[in-house]
Amino acid sequence: MSAPGSAVSGVPHLDVDPFDMNFFADPYPTHELLREAGPVVYLDKWNVYGVARYAEVHAVLNDPATFCSSRGVGLSDFKKETPWRPPSLILEADPPAHTRTRAVLSKVLSPTVMKQVRDRFAAAAEERVDALIERRSFDAIADLAEAYPLSIFPDALGLKSEGREHLIPYASVVFNAFGPPNELRREAIARSTPHQAYVAEQCQRENLAPGGFGACIHAQVDEGAITATEAPLLVRSLLSAGLDTTVNGIGAAVYCLARFPEQWQRLRGDLTLARSAFEEAVRFESPVQTFFRTTTREVELSGATIGEGEKVLMFLAAANRDPRRWDKPDSYDITRRSSGHVGFGSGIHMCVGQLVARLEGEVMLTALARRIAKIEITGEPKRRFNNTLRGLDSLPVTITPA
Amino acid sequence: MPAITFIHADGKSDRVETSGDESAMQAATRHGLDGILAECGGNAMCATCHVYIDAAWLARLPAMADDEDALLDGTAAERLPNSRLACQIMITPALDGLVLRLPERQV
């Protein structure tokens, strides 16, 4: 890793690879280096601009006309390369096309809909905790962070019970594919054919149970909001981004609460903090670490001039710990006012499933804190490597019931 | 700069100075006011900055957009005819003195 040098445009060039295994193992020193090098940096390894401070990340997210998504939100520029799959109609789209599809998913995942599924999600969380209390020792990733969303989300979508084992591997491909053409991405795409076939099939109207999120998306065709060819691709968005993200979000929250027992005790003392404990875990761990945008014109950003057609890498995780924005950024504090963090993004592309994520996180943390006195980590946590997602592969724990 | 007043569910009130270029939600969170959650950070997605507008002011606010209207159907506390989302109310000098009542809960 070299010190920031000076370049023609005055933008410091850094010799760091934020998609490298060593970086993934401990990204924090590099995040700091990126933040402190300047408001805008250039990464020679992948020929992209980067922003790691809160203000610039927030600014890029909130100027979609200049920093567009339709040329891909990964490194690959859809104007120059053929995407590995048909582009998303919402994530990889700009207004006005995005406005219409976004409205459909917002409606399907609205606060009103969350009220309807809340009791079901909470009951499933209680059931999961019952099972964990029986076992005492378990893997908090497989048996909790994965098992819980898998027990509710595919049903909420209305998926058939066969083939669900493709869901997490498919999401893993999607999030690896936003990265550069490294081994993680190449291997993920090479293995993706069966997962893609499964997903394409499940997105069809006849395969989605009535009343589920998937059927609600297709019902929007009848309302004239979207076409029959658009509906399956919007269902695909929920399959891509609705499961693995919440797995990593819940995994992050449990990992935080197990590492910081005083925060766990605070939560036990006041269960109304469950929702904010989850939100703070999303800030602190940032399960979605990065996204790219592409410039639609030459633009000046915090004194740096960026030409048209340049990729800009946003370090969401680094922004979420920028000391310019956050008091004691490296502390996990469940009473923090974390509103404004960019763990779900910001602006028109801000996570459309954020309410589902918060609901799952809140009811699960409430159920855990009500029933469990202590969570102890009993083995070395193992990290799962992905170009975009940050999370664990396993977290061995032993719990003491309350 | 225009100032606005939030009245909490327990009757206590807080007068908040605004910057002249922010929403009622932003002013509230900048001052660390309890009772406004704003989980989505002002992106009109979460309905956790629900407020009841004092009757005298209701007609003086900018009209509600469809997305705000839909979100208000999902608020945790009861939606009333004077319900609004604080993130959608930009505080202009004309709104100096605005009174907003906070619901008992936001989630």
Account of the 3D structure:
The complex is a heterodimer of chains A (402) and B (107). Chain A is built from 16 helices and 13 strands. In chain A, a hairpin with a 4-residue loop joins β2 and β3. Chain A is α+β, with helices and mostly antiparallel strands and 402 residues long. Chain A is 47% helix and 12% strand. Chain A has a 6-stranded mixed beta sheet with strand order 1-2-3-9-6-4. In chain A, α6 (140-157) runs antiparallel to α12 (244-259), α7 (167-177) packs across α8 (183-190) and α10 packs antiparallel against α11. Chain B is an alpha+beta fold. Chain B has one domain (3-101): Ubiquitin-like (UB roll) (Roll), CATH 3.10.20.30. Chain B is built from 3 helices and 5 strands, in the order ββαβααββ. Chain B has a 5-stranded mixed beta sheet with strand order 2-1-5-3-4. In chain B, β1 and β2 form a beta hairpin. The radius of gyration of chain B is 12 Å and the shape is globular. Chain A binds chain B through residues 103, 106-107, 110-115, 275, 279, 337, 339-341, 344, 346-348, 350, 352, 354-355, 358, 362, and chain B through 29, 32, 37-43, 45-47, 67, 70-71, 73-75, 107.
Helix content of chain B: 10-25%
Q: What's the CATH topology name of chain B?
A: Ubiquitin-like (UB roll)
Q: Which oligomerization state do the chains in this entry correspond to?
A: heterodimer
What is the strand content of chain B? 15-25%
Pfam families (chain A): p450
InterPro entries (chain A): Cyt_P450, Cyt_P450_B, Cyt_P450_CS, Cyt_P450_sf
Family (chain A): Belongs to the cytochrome P450 family.
Cofactor (chain A): heme
Topology:
The complex is a heterodimer of chains A (402) and B (107).
Chain A: E1 13-14, H1 21-25, H2 28-37, E2 41-43, E3 48-51, H3 54-61, E4 67-68, H4 97-108, H5 111-135, E5 137-139, H6 140-157, H7 167-177, H8 183-190, H9 193-202, H10 213-222, H11 230-241, H12 244-259, H13 261-269, H14 274-285, E6 290-295, E7 299-301, E8 304-306, E9 311-315, H15 316-319, H16 354-371, E10 372-377, E11 382-384, E12 391-394, E13 396-401
Parallel strand pairs in A: 1-2, 3-9
Antiparallel strand pairs in A: 2-3, 4-6, 5-13, 6-9, 7-8, 10-13, 11-12
Helix pairs in contact in A: 5-6, 5-16, 6-12, 7-8, 10-11, 12-14, 12-16, 14-16
Chain B: E1 3-7, E2 13-17, H1 24-30, E3 50-53, H2 55-58, H3 66-72, E4 83-85, E5 99-101
